[in-house]
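User: Fold this one for me? It's Zinc-binding dehydrogenase.
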Amino acid sequence: MKGAVFTGDRQVALMDFPDPTPGPGEVVLEIRASGICGSDLKFYRAPGGPGRTAALGLGSVDGPVIAGHEPCGVVVAVGQGVAANQAWTGMRAMQHHYRGCGVCPRCSTGWMQMCDEGVKEVYGATGHGGHARYLKCPARTLVELPEELSFETGAAISCGTGTAWGALQRLGLTGDQTIAIFGQGPVGLSATLLAARMGARVIALDTSPERLARAAQFGADLLINPTETNDVLGAIKQATHGLGAHASLDASSHPLARRQAVQCVRSWGKACFVGEGGEVTLDVSPDLLRRQVTLIGSWTFSTVGQAECARYIADRGIDVDALFTHRWRLDQVEEAYRLFDRQTDGKGVILPH
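Assistant: Here's what I get for Zinc-binding dehydrogenase.
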């Protein structure tokens, strides 16, 4: 089979790999949709060479690794020792793209990325991911995809949309609240879509007019472009009767946006950081302590949370497929990442079939 590999310095290559065979406790997933996530860009942009994953803090790997950490498809082979109610041939499934030890308190509650022994594999980074026809993985990393949802929606939930869901759950957002969402890439736009459907009032911020326009389509009540607004905090306070937002979510990773995400909430408000990497500088007393502000870090989701997100979306008929502005064949992967690297368009997905 062909698989897409990040070779470094914004280069992607299609390479030949053997079709996988499941071992004990494993399955083979035939990929029907493999999402392109914003965090893929750090692998896409990273320098080439054998130490590239180690340089990204993921340890070293042997040989090329197939990219893509938002896999969704159908189980086509099941290895020995897999329980009949855990995975079966023909099962429609998303994949939770981390592998832990499987038995520690974190893994046993579905938080394999927080394994007490350290994450063993990150699919699409240190282990083969979904930008190929097939993916081999432990059966315990699968989450059943409801029949009402498309494979593309399942791919989005497998990271970007699931991450937004996890953050909104951590914030405890309710329909009578206002939330400011900094960054309208795939995660931020998913948060806008979900928060709006929860009944919350959404203030969407981004420097891209195209992404702000999509945020409006997804239910944002107020759009702010920080490059065109002299006083972002003032604009948010004016829209919230001088009090500030009840909650905020930063999906941008930008230091200024992170600081404003904390500063824009009202007393007793909550701010959540989702975007990976980078730093932020805060004046602790006025920004946090003396306003009783809660600052939350939210990292993806558990397998339980992934299943809950999928069921919520299915039961409410939320159109997550609308996130996707581009659909690509596997042989178009180079063009797909070149476009996504601009970070002005919506979400893309690879369709290997």
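One thing worth pointing out: The two ends are 12 Å apart (CA to CA).
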